[in-house]
Amino acid sequence: MTKAVLAPLETIRTRMVVGVGSKNISGSFLEVIEQQGWTGLWAGNAINMIRIIPTQAIELGTFECVKRAMTSAQEKWKQTDGPRLQIGSVSLKLSVSWISPVAVAGAAAGVVSTLACHPLEVLKDRLTVSPEVYPCLSVAISKIHKDGGIGAFYAGISPTLMGMLPYSTCYYFMYETMKKSYCKSKNKESLNRPELLVIGALAGLTASTISFPLEVARKRLMVGALQGKCPPHMAAALSEVVKERGILGLYRGWGASCLKVMPSSGITWMFYEAWKDILLVQRHPL
């Protein structure tokens, strides 16, 4: 639902991040409408809708699984005096109490979902940035495979993982931390829907702001081949952006990204927490 409604902002964000067209949000909107009509604002939305279902399912499922496993392991280690590393006759006690299960689970969620669904991300970006070259999904799949084989569907996977780690770790860590802190300050066990919406939006805003320069470099690498000037690695992509646009160029498209990320993140967490509560009640009725 959120992807369908916010698709125009995703289109504008992608175009601005990779340096296609106007440098401001309103100018990009008008440019897309002028060149492709209103439907151009939803370019690549079909593949985005297909992409988000497995991505969110894998990401949130991995997050919950790893978080629970890490929390359970830490509790067991506390009872057994923690894990030990044996080197010959020397036994070293490893302290793991400082490791945040939420941060580890967030990082794992981002990595697993990225590895599983990256080809769909590549297709979405190609359809969004170059609709004249890739007019539909079937043509995009055929052309990408013909030009670069299976490996072409994983173009930019290294910078994607590098960018996903800080984003995903921060995103889940900030959400859980803000939720727990707010509940503690208000003496509440759970949050209502509007509160979940706001905290989810703030978590998305924080994570997106911190990792946005890496997102710019990632998008540049993923679609750079279309412009005939693909930088060899992430550091080169960042350097190229700074050289062309200055330091502020690393945050080009940040406004459009926030307009998309905040409601998307807030609605995602609101629906996720609501359905989780419903399913837990059905599984374990009072």
What descriptive keywords fit this protein?
single chain; 286 residues; mainly alpha; two-stranded antiparallel ribbon; 2 strands; 3% strand
Describe the structure in brief.
Helices cover 72% and strands 3% of the residues. With 286 residues, the chain is mainly α. α5 (101-129) crosses α7.
Report the mean per-residue pLDDT as an integer.
81
What's the overall geometry? globular
> How far apart are the termini?
32 Å
Summarize the amount of helix as a percent range. over 70%
Organism: Trema orientale
Solcar repeats: 1-69, 97-181, 191-278
Keywords: Membrane, Repeat, Transmembrane, Transmembrane helix, Transport
Protein name: Mitochondrial carrier protein
Please describe the topology of this protein.
Blueprint: H1 2-5, H2 7-17, H3 25-36, H4 45-79, E1 84-87, E2 90-93, H5 101-129, H6 137-148, H7 157-186, H8 193-223, H9 234-245, H10 254-283
Antiparallel strand pairs: 1-2
Helix pairs in contact: 2-3, 2-10, 4-5, 5-7, 7-8, 8-9, 8-10
Note down, in words, how this protein is organized:
The chain has 286 residues and is mostly helical. The protein has a domain at 158-252. Helix content is 72%, strand content 3%. It contains ten helices and two strands. A two-stranded antiparallel sheet has the order 1-2. A hairpin with a 2-residue loop joins strand 1 (84-87) and strand 2 (90-93). Helix 2 (7-17) crosses helix 3 (25-36). The longest helix is centred in the N-terminal third of the chain and has 35 residues, at 45-79. The mean pLDDT is 81.
